[in-house]
């Protein structure tokens, strides 16, 4: 699974430096061991005064890069080493992450007879509640240990 985005920053010599954020998850490196790559192309030259790689951007571009890094980190953490697992709607619990193009996290779950009421939370922080028959199969990207 891979997620990527790109930005343009300026190096110490005022040249444009395209910056890309990419998540490439190897199954045996899922979760906390996954890696998020930040690529600079071309790589900026070290600053003559400090020898460090330096680049700058506007505050808006920095926020955009930070948001992309957060999304990439969540994508890497949400990847399961075991692959997706399918559970019944009434077995969902807080923290489970639904599989799909846009990950959603279970924020709350309750069962009312034959209906499971699941409150989802998006990566952007939006929440909504959906109702499912308790036997509905839900495919999860990540299953947290523990109980509801």
Explain the layout of strands and helices.
Blueprint: E1 2-11, E2 16-24, E3 36-40, E4 55-56, H1 59-78, E5 85-88, E6 97-98, E7 104-112, E8 115-122, E9 127-133, E10 137-142
Antiparallel strand pairs: 1-2, 1-4, 2-3, 5-10, 6-7, 6-10, 7-8, 8-9
Short description:
By secondary structure, this protein is mainly beta. It has one helix at residues 59-78, and strands at residues 2-11, 16-24, 36-40, 55-56, 85-88, 97-98, 104-112, 115-122, 127-133, 137-142. The chain is built from 1 helix and 10 strands.
Question: Helix and strand succession?
Answer: EEEEHEEEEEE
Chain-averaged pLDDT: 74
Described by the principal axes of the CA atoms, the overall outline is elongated
The radius of gyration over CA amounts to 20 Å
Number of separate helices: 1
Largest sheet: 6 strands, antiparallel
- Unreliable stretches (pLDDT < 50, length at least 5) are none
If strands are numbered along the chain, what order do they take across the biggest sheet? 5-10-6-7-8-9
Question: How much strand content do the residues show?
Answer: 35-45%
Tally of DSSP β-strands: 10
């Amino acid at each position: 699974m891979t997620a990527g985005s790109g930005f343009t920053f300026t190096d110490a010599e005022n040249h444009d430096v395209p910056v890309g954020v990419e998540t490439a998850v190897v199954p045996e490196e899922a979760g906390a061991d996954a890696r998020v790559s930040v690529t600079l192309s071309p790589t900026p030259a070290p600053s003559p005064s400090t020898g460090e790689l330096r680049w700058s951007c506007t505050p808006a571009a920095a926020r955009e890069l930070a948001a992309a890094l957060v999304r990439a980190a969540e994508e890497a953490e949400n990847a399961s080493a075991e692959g997706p697992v399918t559970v019944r709607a009434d077995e969902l619990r807080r923290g489970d992450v639904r599989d799909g193009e846009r990950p959603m996290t279970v924020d709350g779950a309750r069962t009312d007879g034959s209906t499971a009421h699941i409150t989802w939370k998006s990566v952007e922080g939006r929440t909504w509640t959906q109702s499912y028959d308790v036997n509905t199969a839900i495919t999860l990207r990540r299953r947290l240990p523990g109980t509801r």
